[in-house]
Amino acid sequence: MAGRKRNTKKISKKESKPKVRGRKKSASKRSFFGKIFHFLLWVVIWFFIISIGLTVIYKWVNPPVTPLMIGRALKEDASINKTWKGLEEISPYMVTAALASEDNRFLGHRGFDFGAIQKALDYNKSHSRTHGASTISQQTAKNVFLWQGRSWLRKGMEVYFTFLIERIWGKERIMEVYLNVIEMGNGIYGAEAAAQHYFNCSAKQLSAYQAAAITACYPNPRRWNPAHPTSYIQGRISSIRRLMPKMGKVAFDKESRRKARERYLQAEEKRIKKNGGKRIQL
């Protein structure tokens, strides 16, 4: 009996050792994944701190350069020709042309024009050449904060930064930044640089035709020249000029924005009813 008891004790000791090792391995795994989790958590926290902080700073401080400017300079040895001008120093025709060409509901939406998205989705279903629906707010967010290219990650970041600038900057600041950072030619950024380069005048002196010509080249500003437009660009200039008077006098005061918001919401109600109550019909 005594021998059996001793044998039992030996077996129990042998059996207990693997359990200790298992616990150590399990604890080690938890420690490893815990470190990864804490690292990712701090990355996310710092991302929000930096992105929100930078957006707040850029509400008053003009962005010195953009990722696109840096990318062009490094990869293509392109120059960076830009001169920042306040919105009051830029021809109002540039604002009107931008709205007519790129985003005629800019003052009414909150960063995303769902009507334009719906039109683009409907168009793209039956055409091989797709149309986008990026608003001026989205284009500004992309130009100031993000890299070029197409990916779900970049698109998601674009949505996030669009939300930030809409809430922190407001429409007037978004338009001012847009007209100062957008690419308007090879190494040419902003309305002032474009006005000087193409028409030998200041941004404030741009005529309705000149503003429409510069804006007409936005789809590919390094390919087309607003001072020497092709027949295709002439067609775009004519279309923009026909739309510009419909924009009326563009103002960024509270009352003007309120009225624009009401018009946008009314248009959205009609679109939603037309789609059978669906907000976006995919």
First-to-last CA distance: 79 Å
Q: List low-pLDDT spans.
A: none
The count of DSSP E runs of length 2 or more, i.e. the number of strands, is 3
Percent helix range: 55-70%
Global morphology: globular
Strand content: under 5%
Strand order of the largest sheet: 1-3-2
Oligomer: single chain
What's the alpha carbon Rg, rounded to whole Å?
28 Å
Name the helix and strand elements from N-terminus to C-terminus, one letter apiece.
Answer: HHEHHHHHEEHHHH
Mean pLDDT: 87
Structural class: mainly alpha
How many strands, which pairing sense, and closed or not: the largest β-sheet?
A: 3 strands, mixed
Q: Give the helix tally.
A: 11
Write up what this structure looks like:
With 282 residues, the protein is mainly alpha-helical. Helix content is 66%, strand content 2%. It is built from 11 helices and 3 strands. It has a 3-stranded mixed beta sheet, with helices on one face. Strand 2 and strand 3 form a beta hairpin. Helix 3 packs across helix 10 and helix 5 packs across helix 7 (171-181). The protein is globular and about 80 Å long.
